Amino acid sequence: MITLPANRNQGINNRPSLAVIIPTKNGASWLEQLLSMLKKQTFPPEEIILIDSSSTDTTHSIAKKYQAKFLSIPACEFDHGGTRNLAILNTSAEITIFMTQDAIPANQYAIEHLVRPLQNDTEQKIAAVYGRQLPNSEATIFAEHLRVFNYGNQSFTRCWQDRHAYGFKTIFISNSFAAYRKSVLEKIGYFPENHIFGEDACAVAALLEHGYHVAYASDATVFHSHNYCLRDEFRRYFDIGVFHACRSDLLEKFGTPEGSGRQFVHSELFFIWEKRKYFKMAESLLRNLAKFIAYRLGKRYKILPLPIAKKISMQRQWWE
N or C, which end of the chain has less CB nearby within 10 Å? Predict the structure, then answer.
């Protein structure tokens, strides 16, 4: 049984207008559940915008059923930053909430808890808030640990000065479930475009440099995880290396993520030990070795022939 927050009605009459923006492509498997849960929220969004990359399934009809605004773009034109920027320009809401089509609110308070730090921030120093991602019921032990490692049970707020303590983790955020003040995003030119991904981290870095804060709301929860195989892990970390190579300025300002990487390996092995899945330890070491090699390769992507780089990337369209 979910207990209603004591301050739920506080300030509800002056609640800022909300729009949820969801990039989609053949998302019918999750969309019905996602849109249904958004309609049940204690802070229901005034607007739900789906920006769709030419889906061939029933995504459009599901959007119509739930009266969501549907914007269609050619699949070849999808860009992590540019596509979201296009959607932002189609709403006048004060707060834009970004989700992915496979992120499902864990309860009816997810949106309320996500925007609460923005609503309670009278000085409007907090520019963005991201919520907690929980592993899906079918998550592997590796997918479960990744969510536990990245999304703790303690909320916090970080600013520019915190980079000295937290390094690259200072700009960690995920547009799978995050809320932004639209007016502040506008000041930094919205999300950067033509990036392989990481448009959210780049935006947070710019916001922090401009004196704003980013918050993590651990009580705002969605179910969202991926059961990546070894090949997927390699491709994902190759792309992370490419992103860091393209945005080396972020590494100069916030430091490299290598310390966090070592911490992750130790944490995963301990997690497996606690779960008594001892036979998974060898696989953990193999996966993390593959990630390390892929990341190093990605940082040197310019020496690779384009067909090879494209083949081992998860974001193949970007290489076009």
Answer: N
Cross-strand bridge partners of residue 105? 222
Angle between helices 258-274 and 281-299 (to 10 degrees): 160
| Per-state percent for the chain, helix, strand, coil, to nearest 5 | 50, 15, 35
| pLDDT tens string 47-85 | 999 999 999 999 999 999 999 999 999 999 999 999 999
pLDDT tens, position by position, 206-236: 999 999 999 999 999 999 999 999 999 999 9
d(CA 49, CA 19): 7
Q: How far is residue 10 from each of residues 5, 75, 118, measured CA to CA in Å?
A: 10, 43, 13
How far apart, in whole angstroms, are the C-alpha atoms of residue 319 and residue 163? 31
Length of the chain (residues): 320
Decide: residue 2, CB within 10 A, 0-12 exposed, 13-18 middle, 19+ buried.
exposed
Domains of the chain: 16-223 (3.90.550.10), 230-315 (no CATH)
- The pTM of this model reads 0.93
The 3 state secondary structure assigned to 7-54 is: CCCCCHHHCCCEEEEEEECCCHHHHHHHHHHHHCCCCCCCEEEEEEEC
Q: State the Cα–Cα distance between residues 235 and 238, nearest whole angstrom.
A: 5
Q: Which two tokens stand for residue 84?
A: 């979201």
CA pair distance 178, 176, nearest whole angstrom:
7
Which residues face 158 on adjacent strands? 214
